[in-house]
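pinned: reference chain
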Amino acid sequence: MKYVIVVLSLLVFSCKQEKKYHDIAQVKKEKVQDTLIADIIEWQKELNKEYEDPKTSPLPDRYRKDFKTLDFFEPDTTFVVTASFERTPEAIPFLMPTTTDRKSEEVVYGIATFNLKGKKHKLEIYQNRKLMLQEEYKDYLFLPFIDKTNGEHTYGGGRYIDLSIPEGRTIVINFNKAYNPYCAYNKKYSCPIVPGINSLDIEVLAGVKAFKKGRK
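pinned: its structure tokens
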């Protein structure tokens, strides 16, 4: 009888320990998600401040004076991916077309490979040849992309994501921080045109939506 009690006690203890382990894992996952969401919301607030400030806003005065917020998708942590990152040190600089006659001298700094929404994707990540010479932008990387939301939910010309040179062989891409080129708001700006190779065959329902004139 004592043996049975001991065995039952061990089983109960084991189950409790297992449950505790899974509970801890779930709590950690939730904390990571909460941190990511908080970071996304803070990024949205900072972007709104930039667009509200006449010194930094790309908005024409007629739109900026009543501006309250950009239109964002709800934060979605499934659109935060850790991609493998392959450097391309032998890449030759090229002139990326823009929405004006200007050409932007870029080089493919590396290629990001990741899985998203059940599919494997590859995106080229660029470094601007002029910006890399400036101390403030020496680690800056540029990720332009297009996806299946363009022209409907998002700006037809695609969107951009700002990144920094990673230390290792992976790079985190947060599509919740995808924003529109300035020329989506004001035609006076010259914006790099997204290379066709950076086309995603999915809907990226994250980041900034298409600009609606007169939105408050």
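why pinned: The first helix runs from residue 2 to 52. The first strand starts at residue 80 and ends at 87.
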